[in-house]
User: Fold this.
Amino acid sequence: LPLDQVDGESIGLILFRGEGTQAFRDALERAMRGPEGVKSWYLRVIDRLAREGVVHVVSIHGRAWAEIDYPVDLKNARRLARGWLLEDGDRDTVSEDALSAGA
Assistant:
């Protein structure tokens, strides 16, 4: 986004696969209908799904990570992602085009 057109930061990025999108929507709908619904963050819904075994995690133990709040942070995150791919032996997928596209 052009910097002159933004007024804030992202609150996060979440990837849903398969039936995950519908599971999140359903859980969010249930939460919003409860007494705490409008007082809760969406992450509480994800926590509930994780406790039910619907959400899975991937350990980043021992790996560097970076928060992306501003455009300047993206360059560092791409460098880190390239390192992860190289560590995992995915040399064929490491390219500027792939990382620029968000791969």
Summary: The two ends are 19 Å apart (CA to CA). The CA atoms of residues 85 and 93 lie 8 Å apart.
